[in-house]
Amino acid sequence: MVPSAVINEAILFFTLLAMRALVRRTPREKLPESFRYFTVLSNLFCALTALILLVCELCGAMPAWAVALKYMGTVTVTVTLCTVFLFLLPVSRSLEGLLSTGPERIMHVVTPLLAILSFLCFEQKGLSAWIIPLGILPVLLYGWLYLDRVVFAKAWPDIYGFNKGGKWKLSFSLMVAGAILIAVLLWWI
């Protein structure tokens, strides 16, 4: 089995393990709220893209569209990783809830690193620059959803603190700029 397939299997395994732990510890009535988190959504998306690429690999091909999807999944979990280490940890000054338990450690560190490793070492094969906007699309979609639910509709709590002091414009701009930088770097390296 090729290294990419092994790593994609690991991404699937660890994501399922994290989701199982999340479901077990979350009260049933609060479970839908777990899907407000970009961390959960990005890891599920990355696992889906890993599964698609794995199936293609097992069938003897690595089509460009499947690699493009995996690129998108890798960008999303890399945004998760960078957000945790460059924003959430410095702001909270605590590992509590971010890296302290199995599911968080898996979703914030393990899965992103596996996705980056597999994409950069085994899957990134001459993708053209057209892929970059697709890489940031999930981040933009979630950003607009978060902005609508937190700032405009006030239906969700500001779980990330991006609207602290009414600074949502700055936060939104920085997240999009960060996603663009990550998408460009993953494509370029």
**E-strand count:** 0
- The parts where pLDDT drops under 50 for at least 5 residues are none
* Oligomerization: single chain
Shape: globular
Mean pLDDT: 89
Radius of gyration: 17 Å
Instruction: Report the span from N to C terminus.
Output: 25 Å
Helix content: over 70%
Main sheet record: none
Structural description of this entry:
The protein is mostly helical. It has helices at 3-25, 38-58, 64-92, 102-123, 131-152, 168-188.
Per-chain topology:
Blueprint: H1 3-25, H2 38-58, H3 64-92, H4 102-123, H5 131-152, H6 168-188
Helix pairs in contact: 1-2, 1-4, 2-3, 2-4, 3-4, 3-5, 3-6, 5-6
Write a compact overview of the structure shown.
With 189 residues, the chain is mostly helical. The chain has six helices and no strands. Helix 3 (64-92) crosses helix 5, helix 3 (64-92) crosses helix 6 and helix 5 (131-152) packs antiparallel against helix 6 (168-188).
Task: Throw out a few tags for this protein.
6 helices
